[in-house]
Amino acid sequence: MTTTLSAAAALPSEIVQSPLPRLKITEIFLSLQGEADTAGWPTVFVRLTGCPLRCTYCDTAYAFHGGTWWDIDAIVDEVLAQGVHHVCVTGGEPLAQKRCLVLLEKLCDAGLDVSLETSGALDVSAVDPRVSRVVDLKTPGSGEMARNRLENLPLLTKRDQIKFVLCSREDYEWARGMVREHRLNERSMVLFSPSKSEVSPRELADWIVADRLPVRFQMQLHKLLWNDEPGR
């Protein structure tokens, strides 16, 4: 079942500063989780509208603008109506909307297994501790490396994951250095993903094996199944 939402665009300031108990949503849909430690599980995705970053490899630019305002309780009801245990709050950059924290708490209170996909450019300290935070550290090839908030790293636990999307051998070497310097694998699961059409999956797999790097190689299962079809 797929539910796709759309509406007129809003200014970024409206997204971040709205005082109402609601969020601007691009889409809510049921699919299989394509990555991270819950890959393969039926999952409801709640995609929030808006993002302050512009990564070179972004595959969800359609979530930068538009969307529909939803009351937070209505979002929770829609998620529960899908009848599955896993829910992923994503974007865009979901934490750009401050009320996202309220949504995460209410989803946890509803007994769901909740994950948050975030760029790592915004503070994750206030996220409900029951949430699995998947923090995407931006590589040089992303064009947004300067936005990384390294203060987030000491906050992460074994419940969380740290993700790198790699665009080149240079990106790989940078990410490898970050893992070693910050001992990231001792803190959380570390995920290495190849950027589509820039690094071949086989290349990346060979590099990881050659270096005996303590990271988890992953490909995006949903793209293998459905390519770049929105809402899948």
From TrEMBL:
* Annotated residues for binding of S-adenosyl-L-methionine: 57-59, 92
- Please indicate if the UniProt record lists Protein biosynthesis as a keyword: no
Recorded catalytic activity of this chain's protein = 6-carboxy-5,6,7,8-tetrahydropterin + H(+) = 7-carboxy-7-carbaguanine + NH4(+)
Entry's InterPro entries?
7-CO-7-deazaguanine_synth-like (IPR024924), Aldolase_TIM (IPR013785), rSAM (IPR007197), rSAM_QueE_gams (IPR027621), rSAM_sf (IPR058240)
* GO BP of this protein: tRNA queuosine(34) biosynthetic process
User: Which stretches make up the Radical SAM core domain?
Assistant: 38-228
Would I find Iron-sulfur among this entry's keywords? yes
The EC code for this enzyme is: 4.3.99.3
Q: Which GO terms describe its molecular function?
A: 4 iron, 4 sulfur cluster binding; carbon-nitrogen lyase activity; magnesium ion binding; S-adenosyl-L-methionine binding
Residues annotated for [4Fe-4S] cluster binding in this entry: 51, 55, 58
Q: Which domain of life is it from?
A: Bacteria
Residues reported in the UniProt entry to bind Mg(2+): 60
- Assembly description: Homodimer.
Q: Which family does it belong to?
A: Belongs to the radical SAM superfamily. 7-carboxy-7-deazaguanine synthase family.
Query: In its UniProt entry, what is this protein called?
Result: 7-carboxy-7-deazaguanine synthase
Gene expressing this chain: queE
